[in-house]
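@channel sequence for tomorrow's demo:
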Amino acid sequence: MAAYGNRCCISDCAVKELLEAAHIQPYMGEKNSVTTNGLLLRVDIHRLFDRHLIFVETDTFTLKVHPALTESEYAQFDGRRLRAPLSAEHAPNVSALKAHAKTGNWLVKRSME
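structure tokens (generated this afternoon):
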């Protein structure tokens, strides 16, 4: 929470009761329970992230939203730049973000249809 100033790095929500630390790569104990393997997200956005309906474009640190959400309130976040943590030492691991994007890479699958 402190690494992101108690604000969702996507929506900027500051209601602490709605914020959760989201693992970029799945939780595997102490080994990857570090701030660089996490993002502070609002609960609903965390769920979308875990289900690969959103991911971070690592070249620009912007959010990509699944086409199925185009007509939803989440479309507003497509292309939004992530809020950086307060200190660069807590910046999300780019390799982990790339792996997360590949795991649910619906952009590639969609372009092949």
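heads up for whoever presents: The chain has one domain: 2-111.
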